[in-house]
Design a protein that fits this description.
heterodimer, A: mainly beta, 11 strands, globular, B: 4-stranded antiparallel β-sheet, about 0% helix
Chain lengths: ~110, ~110
């Protein structure tokens, strides 16, 4: 079993839809939870991060962490064609030398006009 | 401010040939990383560096070597390319060790025939 599981999709939605992207994890020591966005033929870029648990909102994007369920989500409201990309979750612990980022496989999202 | 740049963008090698991928960053970051990204496997860490003159192995280091002679540059070498090394290679850097925010280059698409 991988430490971080993410459904690769693809996910296809109409413009304006609410999108929910999810990752599950097995390591209860993870403290940092990140969402990266990767456009086609580009490198990933950080979209949002959350430390420990709770919600974080940035414009149309909301990141949620439920540590009791070991489950994180990224919600995109009023999705736009420009949101079409692959979304990768990443996580890391906050202790010692074992702080490498652990990546999900990424979910491919297409928002159709 | 170019961020992280990678050279070359594309390359085709024959089995057994060698090559060097160059990564340069202009953000004065201490930490640099080489990843490969493959369908169904996600991002995997090959090697990383925590400062000028240092290198360390990641998850999948076999068949690769690295050097960090200057703080701004991180080189990835393939001594004898194999078809299994066909992949997209990303370089990244961060200002703090294992920072939640890593800055990625645009990638190098390598095909080994």
């Amino acid at each position: 079993q991988k430490e971080v599981e993410q459904d690769p999709g693809p996910l296809s939605v109409p413009e304006g839809a609410i999108v929910s992207l999810n990752c599950t994890y097995s390591n209860s020591a993870f403290q940092y939870f990140m969402w990266y966005r990767q456009y086609s033929r580009k490198g990933p870029e950080l979209l949002m991060y959350t430390y420990s648990s709770g919600n974080k909102e940035d414009g149309r994007f909301t990141a949620q962490v439920d540590k009791s369920s070991k489950y994180i989500s990224l919600f995109i409201r009023d999705s736009q064609p420009s949101d079409s990309a692959t979304y990768l979750c990443a996580m890391r612990t906050n202790a010692g030398n074992n702080r490498k980022l652990i990546w999900g496989l990424g979910t491919s999202l297409a928002v159709n006009p | 401010n170019a961020g992280v740049t990678q050279t070359p963008k594309f390359r085709v090698l024959k089995t057994g040939q060698s090559m060097t991928l160059l990564c340069a960053q202009d953000m004065n970051h201490e930490y640099m990383y080489w990843y490969r990204q493959d369908p169904g496997m996600g991002l995997r860490l090959i090697h990383y560096s925590v400062g000028e003159g240092t290198t360390a192995k990641g998850e999948v280091p076999d068949g690769y070597n690295v050097s960090r002679l200057k703080k701004q540059n991180f080189l990835l070498g393939l001594e004898s390319a194999a078809p299994s090394q066909t992949s997209v290679y990303f370089c990244a850097s961060s200002g703090q060790d294992w920072s939640y925010e890593q800055y990625f280059g645009p990638g190098t698409r390598l095909t080994v025939t």
